Amino acid sequence: MQRIDTIDDIEAGLDALVLADARLVDIRSRAHAVPLRRSQPGFESLASIIVAQQVSTASAASIWARLKTHVAPLTPENYLERGEEAWRLAGLSRPKQSTLVHVSKAVLAGELDLFGLCNHPAEEAITTMTAIKGIGPWTAEVYLLFAAGHPDVFPAGDVALQAAVGHAFGRESRPTAADLRVLAEAWSPWRGVAARLFWAYYAAIRGREATPLL
């Protein structure tokens, strides 16, 4: 597996994508720079993705800053030890509090190796992660994209990606997750770069960041 570790990797993926799908030539030019956006594997990276679920970038950043203040350093042990008062002060919703409890316990029990998963095939890693209560496909896919640098993962359930693809291809309504998964098959084995491209395109046309990484 060729990881996406550098901007050169992004450029190589973009070059391959526009050769495979001519529709992406104009999208690439309109998206301007396509950022790398990598994070270190581990609990903190996954926690940041969980915090970013279903909230604006600004709200996620605010909650994240408070969480790192009230749980410092942010480790599974410290998260569980600080308890509900710290989680509430950080602004975590009940479902996110619960998900991070399950993740913390799984990591400490050796049931979830967030470093080792980065070397597994995408489907296998996603299956392992989604077995943890509260982690859905979107969370697992985003983790593999940004923490593992996986080249061929496309989070089709991401609303911004759906909106970006729908706009780019002139659709009256954004595609469903199922529709987008089918569309994205044409961009394999560079779906991870295609996702970054469409997030960058979304930022260009909407004037606001949509990449789900703090």
TrEMBL record:
A GO term for molecular function: DNA-7-methylguanine glycosylase activity
GO biological process, one term: base-excision repair, AP site formation
EC number in record: 3.2.2.21
Gene Ontology CC terms, in alphabetical order: cytoplasm; protein-DNA complex
Domain (HhH-GPD) ranges: 51-203
Broad EC category: hydrolase
InterPro entries named among the record's database cross-references: Alkylbase_DNA_Glycosylase/TA, DNA_glycosylase, HhH-GPD_domain
Matches recorded under Gene3D superfamilies: 1.10.1670.40, Hypothetical protein, domain 2
Source organism superkingdom: Bacteria
Pfam families linked to this entry: HhH-GPD
The entry's keywords: DNA damage, DNA repair, Glycosidase, Hydrolase
Catalyzed reactions per annotation: Hydrolysis of alkylated DNA, releasing 3-methyladenine, 3-methylguanine, 7-methylguanine and 7-methyladenine
PANTHER family: DNA-3-METHYLADENINE GLYCOSYLASE (PTHR43003), DNA-3-METHYLADENINE GLYCOSYLASE 2 (PTHR43003:SF13)
Full protein name: DNA-3-methyladenine glycosylase II
Organism: Paramesorhizobium deserti
